[in-house]
Amino acid sequence: MRFFFFAFFFLLLALPARAVIVDRIVAVVNDEVITLSELDEAAAPLYKRYLAGVKNPVERDRLINEIRRKVLREMIDDLLVAQEVERLGITVTDEEIDHFIENVKQQNGLSDEQLEEMVRAQGLTMEEYRKRIADQIKRIKLIQTQVRGRLVITEEELRDYYQKHYLSSGQTKYELAAIIIRGEDAEEKARKAYEELRSGADFVEVARKYSVLPDSGKGLGTFSLEELSPEVREVIRGLKPGEFSRPVKVGDTWQIFLVIAVHAEGAKSFEEAKPEIQQKLYQEKVDQLFQNWLKELREKSYVRILL
Questions:
Q1: In sequence order, what are the beta bridge partners of 253?
Q2: Collapsing DSSP states into helix, strand and coil, what is residue 96?
Q3: Using an 8 Å Cβ cutoff, are 251 and 181 in contact?
Q4: Where are the alpha helices (DSSP H) in the chain?
Q5: Top-confidence residue, 85 or 270
């Protein structure tokens, strides 16, 4: 249990002079404190995991101090969040807790008896478990009020995530068009063609103007990376549909490639994967925004570490 700092301070003053103080304050967070006994209680699972078998007292002390510092940082963040929840008057109803627990049971295929067994295995009573759920819901509400308004996921981000994380699960094939230029001034023509494309010129029209195979601007076919030369592979890897490469020398020609489409055999289509990607990006962004918000909260709060 945490005590208000000044109440705790005056309690210490009231102790007899010869009394032995077995606890001490390790952090002050605004008007509340964290004691060493609370810290050790929170760190107990890590002590059990990392100190087992450590005989050297110096190494043991080093590990204890390292664990304490890590856990204390987490406790300070938890307390700051709890204080903000209280300041904003965020509350949770029994119905919300019941609904949350029902979702946990459904997602894990648990009966009431199995859930209670799982709770007991964690050393908790159902009352303590419900309190933890209430705290978790309060934090979810806090995150929603603090960061959701700043959360935007663009179509470009969705497609970029799909390109990086989903296409690799199957054999990726690129549907390509190309501008193929040959001759003594091929490099100079390739540079001019590239500048016209960057200025917004149509790829097919630029191909008709410069390419030795005018129809190559409409399409060459579909290829896996393994089917392409190392030079071509290097410039098209990672390009999205509609993007074109820089000029590249291939044999005695200079070429510019346009990615018409990207296909992945055995992988989900973008539309199939889109809801999953949205959820993943949402969680990633919520986590990052929450960490940024928590950093700002730390900076404007009074935090003093006495460990």
A1: 182, 250
A2: helix
A3: no
A4: 5-13, 36-51, 57-87, 94-108, 112-121, 126-147, 155-165, 186-198, 203-210, 230-236, 270-300
A5: 85
CA distance 26 to 33: 8
- 139 Cα distance to chain centroid: 18
Give the residue among 38, 36, 30, 42 at the shortest CA–CA distance from 4: 30
pLDDT digits (tens, 9 = 90+) for 204-237: 999 999 998 878 899 988 888 778 888 898 898 8
CB burial class (10 A; 0-12, 13-18, 19+) of residue 43? buried
Supply 220's token pair: 């060459």
What is the Cα–Cα distance from 46 to 37, expressed in whole angstroms?
15
CA dist., res. 102 & res. 278, Å (int): 24
Dihedral Cα 275, 279, 280, 285, nearest 10 deg = 130
Number of CB atoms found within 10 A of residue 257's CB:
26
Choose among 184, 190, 206: nearest CA to 248: 190
In this structure, are residues 278 and 165 in contact, taking their beta carbons and an 8 Å threshold? Answer: no
Residue 21 has pLDDT above 50, yes or no: no
Residue 183 CB contacts under 8 Å (≥ 6 apart), including other chains: 189
Q: Distance between CA atoms of 120 and 102, rounded to whole angstroms? A: 17
Q: Structural domains in the chain?
A: 5-87 (no CATH), 94-154+277-305 (no CATH), 167-265 (3.10.50.40)
Helix (H, G, I), strand (E, B) or coil at 157: helix
